[in-house]
Amino acid sequence: MKKQETVDLIKGEFTPDEASEILFSIIGDKIKFNNRQIFSREERNLGNTDRYKKRLIELKHSQEKVSNLIDLAKAEGKIIEVSGIIDITVR
Asked: How many Å apart are CA 89 and CA 25, to the nearest integer?
């Protein structure tokens, strides 16, 4: 079994609305995941949730950046090119 893979998760040109749907869906799912982890760990007293809370802050900043770019593309009638490569390593 190979211990490392690279996956092209997103690749292509999109209208601002398409890019918005794709990108906010991914970011939203990550926000939900981290919120669930925080809730679960706090409910079961499983320890520190700082890394999840820190990641939530980062994701919300990413959400703002994406929103600004999409607004710009809409205002200027532009297409958005998105490339999202995921590197996966089994340790």
From this structure: 24
Mean pLDDT taken over the chain: 96
The answer to whether the predicted template modeling score (pTM) of the entire model surpasses 0.85 is: yes
Q: ∠86-88-89 over CA atoms, to 5°?
A: 155
Which amino acid is residue 23, in one-letter code? L
Spatial CA neighbour of 85 closest among 29, 11, 2, 26: 11
Q: What is the rounded CA–CA span in Å between residue 59 and residue 30?
A: 8
Give the closest residue to 48 by CA, choosing from 56, 57, 38. Answer: 38
User: How far is the C-alpha of 15 from the C-alpha of 37, rounded, in Å?
Assistant: 33
Cα–Cα distance, 60 to 28 (Å, whole number): 9
Let me know how long the chain is: 91
